[in-house]
Amino acid sequence: MAATDLTELASPAGAPWTNWVGNQTSTPGYAAAPRSEEEVVALVRQAAERGIGVRVAGAGHSFTPVVQTDGLHLDLSAMRGVVATDPGRRRATALAGTRIHDFYEPLWEAGLALRNQGDIDTQHVAGAVATSTHGSGTRFTSLSGAVRRMRIVTASGEVLDVGEDRPDLLHAAQTSVGMLGVVTQLELAVTEAYRLQQQVGLWSWDDVMEQWDDLVATHRHFGMFWLPSEESGALYNLDGHGEPMADRCYVKIYDEVGPDVPDSDVEGRRVDRCYRIFPMVYDANFHELEYFVPLERGPEALQAMRRLMLARLPESVYPLEVRTVGADEAWLSPQHRQATTVISVSGAPGTDYWDYLRSVDALLADFGARPHWGKLHFLTRDRLHALYPRADDFTALRRELDPAGMFLNDHLRPLFG
Ligand SMILES: Cc1cc2nc3c(=O)[nH]c(=O)nc-3n(C[C@H](O)[C@H](O)[C@H](O)COP(=O)(O)OP(=O)(O)OC[C@H]3O[C@@H](n4cnc5c(N)ncnc54)[C@H](O)[C@@H]3O)c2cc1C
């Protein structure tokens, strides 16, 4: 197809697109970076007329082939910024390409903050929402569960304004992996600004397991990395301060503190604004799989994972990250109507880690695990339908909004086509 066949807003793509960690590439036919919703509408209409597929890239922090297209690749980086805050209703509205860290200052100035956060803050908000990006703590849903309104440019070029008055549509759109259309704007439920005390320490496996229920129930955030070997911590930049790390747990506990507790930067016990506590620093040196088992089955699944990983060293050298997430209503959310224990492991880039990851998949499948849409998984259509009670409804809605499947790609079509 000649370059002039598509609007002047798009250009024939140059260099192939690559995700952050470098395990996914794509050579789109066209690429565009719209600056407004009107431009998105024009691009989607032209792509639809010509039967070209469309996928949006966020910050490229997914490990799965969720962005790839040989059609039109959209980059919404220019559609960025918090456009409204409402302290009374505790809401914040942002353009789709707003990075998570772009929320910090505008919300804090309005006396607000994101309810919870994951390990990094460089994702586009629409990209993070598309895959149910989460932090830790059963009192909090993923970011998808916090979405209260979205504007989506659908395959017909219409703008769908989805809010709480249409709960089914909202719950379908909250976790859509980009399959319902191009999200241009989102309103999130947020919370009052809060400060956190962070406690970090190396614990024995048995101590964590014995106190599991208490750790999960008592703290705002409890998460840990179990380190199968002495080398494991350094792979995720976890500092053991010279202590032995093999077969120990790097435990992170965050609790809210009042204004009487001053900020502090004492090693292992920091106090600061929430958004300065949450983010970690990762190198692009791992390919991650993350599965979600029902919350109460967490300890049993973790014991089984530890046995498997010790038996599979050295390929299982990356830390086992463990978190919890509260239930939500999003149809494709791993937390759909079910709080979860989150279990993640990684393989080393450049090695054949697939057999190891398949053994993790097989083990966690027995616990009814649902995968993270942005992290490596082995989901089939049969498993999808067994695990997600609203998968049929999502597929029916997707077909209604996008009969030609222009927002599907080779990864998503076998699951949702
Ligand atoms: C180092 C690292 C740490 C991470 N930590 C966490 C964590 O703590 N918790 C967690 O849950 N996940 C985590 N992730 C995974 C990450 O949050 C998700 O994969 C997230 O989706 C990435 O957001 P992104 O902006 O990079 O989107 P991308 O990966 O670029 O895209 C993700 C999906 O969103 C779609 N999309 C993006 N923008 C739009 C739009 N405007 N309209 C429609 N669809 C759109 C894309 O098409 C794609 O399907 C981590 C990933 C990395 C690499």
Automatic annotation (TrEMBL):
Native organism:
Nocardioides scoriae
Please report the name of this protein according to its UniProt entry: FAD/FMN-containing dehydrogenase
Q: Which SUPFAM superfamilies match?
A: FAD-binding/transporter-associated domain-like
Which Pfam families does the record cross-reference, listed alphabetically?
Answer: ALO, FAD_binding_4
Give the GO molecular function terms: D-arabinono-1,4-lactone oxidase activity; FAD binding
Q: Where is the FAD-binding PCMH-type domain?
A: 24-193
Keywords assigned by UniProt?
A: Oxidoreductase
- PROSITE patterns registered for this protein in UniProt: FAD_PCMH
Gene Ontology CC terms = membrane
